[in-house]
Amino acid sequence: MLDFGQTDCQSMGMDKKLEIQNILMVPPTYFKIGYEINPFMRKVDGELNVVNERIAQQQWNALQQIYFDLGLNILQVPPSEMHPDMVFTANQLLPFKDPKNNFEQSFILSHMATAERAGEVIFFKNWASERGYKTYQLNIGPFEGMGDALWSSDESVLFLGHGYRTHFDVAIELEKYVQKNIVPLKLISPYFYHLDTCLAIINKDTCAIVKEAFDESSLQKLDSYFKTKIEIPFDEAKKFLACNLFCPDGKTILIEKQCTQTINRLSDFGFDIKAVDTAEFLKSGGSVFCLKLAF
Ligand code: ARG
Asked: Which pTM does this prediction carry?
C-alpha cells in the first residue's frame, strides 16, 4: 500500500470532530444526455437516454429539501446551458482543510477526464474565488474531484479511485496539498467508473462497498480502515447505483429508492433511511452522492 505519511488532525491542533455543513448543488435546468461517456447513458436499443426535464427538476427539488430539513446550508452554482452534466457537483472540486492556509476550507480543482466535461470546472473555480476560498490546480490529471476522492469521516485519510477517470499519479500530487494519507484504490469494472459508485463512507468504522468493482489488493487495503464493510448487491449497484448513497451525519442514509435489497440491509444495521427518487439522473450514470458536493 502506498502510505504517504499520516498527519492526523490532533497533531495539527485541529478540531477533532469534522461535520458536513454545506451542500453545493447545480440546478438541473440544462441537464440532459447530450453524449455518452459512461455505460449508463445509452439505452439497449442504441439511442442515448432521454431525460424528462420536469421530473428531473422535481427529483432534484426533493433531494435538496432533505438537505434543508437536515439543517444543512444549501449553496448553488448557477447552471450553464453548455454543460449538461454540471448537475453532478461531486466531480469538479475536492474540498480540504488547507495546511498551507491555516486549515481554512480550500478546494482542489478537477482536471476532467473527458473533453465533454472539461468546461465545467471554471464555473466552480469562479464560485469559490468569489467567496474568498482558495483554489488549487494540480499539475497532473485527469482528476475528477469527489467522484474519485473520498475522505474518511475524520478527514485523516483520502481514498482515491483510479483506473477510469482519475489517473493513479494524481495521488502523489494531491498529497502535497492535503498532507494526509492517500490510499489509492484500483477500479476494474466500467459500470463503476468513479469511486463514489462503489465505495460509500458511512462513518468512522463503516463503509458500503461493491466488491466486484475493485482489484484484490485494493479490497485488502480497505480492511484495515473499516471494521464493517457492508456489501452492496452487485445487480442493484449496477442498475440503480445503490452505492452512490450519502450519509451526512453517520446515521442518516440517502439512497435511490429502487435499491430495495440495499435499503433492507442498511436498515438491519440500524441506519435511518431516506429513500429518494433519482431515476432521471441514473440515466446519466449518477445518483444521490454525485448530485452534491458536501463540505
Ligand atoms: N454523466 C456523468 C459522467 O459520466 C455522470 C457523473 C456521475 N458522477 C459521479 N460522481 N459518479 O461524468
From this structure: 0.94
Cell of 200: 460509500
Task: Answer whether 202's CB lies under 8 Å from 230's CB.
Answer: yes
Q: Give CA 136 to chain center in angstroms.
A: 19
147 C-beta closer than 6 A to ligand 1: yes
Tell me the backbone φ, ψ of residue 259, rounded to 5 degrees: -85, 65
Give the integer Cα–Cα distance in Å for 224 and 210.
17
Q: Verify whether ligand 1 is closer than 6 Å to residue 283 (CB atom).
A: no
Secondary structure of residue 219 in the 3-state scheme: helix
Taking the CB of residue 189, how many other CB atoms lie within 10 A of it? 18
Residue 78 CA to residue 124 CA, distance in Å, equals 9
Q: Is 31 in the pocket of ligand 1 (CB under 6 A)?
A: no
Portion of the chain with pLDDT greater than 70, in percent: 94
Kindly give the distance from the C-alpha atom of residue 290 to the centroid of ligand 1, in angstroms, as a whole number: 7
